[in-house]
Amino acid sequence: MTDIQPAGRGFLEYAPAPESRAILHLRDEYGLFIDGQFRPGSGEPFATISPADESHIATVSNADDADIDAAVAAARRAYDKTWSKLSGRDRGKYLFRIARLVQERARELAVAESLDNGKPIKESRDVDVPLVAAWFFYYAGWADKLDYAGLGANPRALGVAAQVIPWNFPLLMLAWKIAPALAAGNTVVIKPAETTPLSALIFAEILQQADLPPGVVNIVTGAGSTGSALVRHPGVDKIAFTGSTGVGREIAKAVAGTQKKVTLELGGKAANIVFDDAPVDQAIEGIVNGIFFNQGHVCCAGSRLLVQESVHDEVVDRLKTRLSTLRLGDPLDKNTDIGAINSRAQLDRIRELSAIGEQEGAERWSADCAIPENGFWFAPTIFTNVQASHRIARDEIFGPVLSVLTFRTPAEAIEKANNTPYGLSAGIWSDKGSRILAVADRLRAGVVWANTFNRFDPASPFGGYKESGYGREGGRHGLLAYLKGAGA
Ligand code: TAP
């Protein structure tokens, strides 16, 4: 289904689903990873479950304020005594080592990610995990070249970075955060999302294997309150947050008036614009990939399809035909296209917004697929006759739901695409290069894809305008967010 093809696509072959689970060597209980060691948290431990069947995977520690103090103190000690004293070349060696270990343990990481998150194994195997390795390789290469970052000779790290990440790409978001922070010379305390801590805890084992000095990366699991305590901690110098716009706003308020530097990667409601001269076969695949990849749990998902009126019926008919071929089911089955929704809460939100779509007069079509009895599932769904004022055209659904709107002229397409409080990404499908460039220039979106969608590369900066946040991750820009003397 997806055309996302980072290096290494297809380099792993998987056993059928039941056996793939067997390659995981999970502990029954996971502690917090502080100062290079696992240790129990002081809060009430919690279970992480598989969203595909609601089965228990492991028990995970819950960090309270005292644990956050310990993690931040460990990161500060490591910064003062070890990490800030290493040369860039030596920091780079650790990052290269981590990247290689991620590759070595790729199968295990992919299975853990699909088990805990619900995403299809072919996505975690071909997209998430290869990109995680690519991110560490890319920033490993920067570590001894910071003098070329544009900040003069010897740019300096910020110190201790507090990082809070969401559940949709648990390991990839961790890599986006940790790799540039370490390359620039910072130490880290990171909090994974409550529903997807597993791959981060396996990653902690990789850090031990890599002999990363204790305290350079600390991983504290817990709920939203753990994230809140971490970002408010007076001992942190930098905050990097990816998640909802609501929580991003709270964080921005909490740090107002402090010296902390902040980058926020928040929500989106991307327009995927299809002109009447678009290559239709390619566009259909791009639309499907844009909204149904990772069950639509993607901040930059192409959740609003803007299609030129003259090709609307053809595009919608072909989309329905294509969606009828997608296979929904066991995330660990390599033939699965659509996995499980990550949590009951997220499923409830998708159901609620879809019901509102129907009440407001949009026309709903859902693929006719068998829904498993247990777990959290939602069939791929398209809404047509959507008006710009409808909630399903304005709110981020963060699920496998596409809202289709129409336009007549390029100017109308641009106006509708920009008619959103968000500004993270957009897509344009057209045969004319000049039209693509002219439209892209007027879209208020941090990333604009042309005749493709959801392509990621560690060298390419990613981030939003307006309520999609500020600061960039990836590329040289992503590095600057962790160095003194640069913006954000
Ligand atoms: P959030 O509820 O915002 O959660 C994100 C992270 O913040 C989780 O680790 C969460 O912990 C933690 N958190 C919750 N409340 C907090 C608080 N008051 N202070 C500090 N941390 C807190 O978002 P989500 O539901 O996980 O993710 C979905 C949202 O993230 C969507 O809106 C999506 O667009 C956005 N997103 C954006 C991007 C980019 S790059 N822009 C990428 C991925 C996702 P718990 O899990 O324990 O609640």
From TrEMBL:
It comes from the Bacteria. Residues 41-483 form the Aldehyde dehydrogenase domain. Keywords: Oxidoreductase. InterPro entries: Ald_DH/histidinol_DH (IPR016161), Ald_DH_C (IPR016163), Ald_DH_CS_GLU (IPR029510), Ald_DH_N (IPR016162), Aldehyde_DH_dom (IPR015590). Pfam families: Aldedh. The keyword Oxidoreductase applies. The keyword Oxidoreductase applies. The active site is at E265. Coiled coil: none annotated. GO terms for molecular function: oxidoreductase activity, acting on the aldehyde or oxo group of donors, NAD or NADP as acceptor. Belongs to the aldehyde dehydrogenase family. This is Acyl-CoA reductase-like NAD-dependent aldehyde dehydrogenase. It comes from Microbacterium invictum. The lineage of its organism: Bacteria, Bacillati, Actinomycetota, Actinomycetes, Micrococcales.
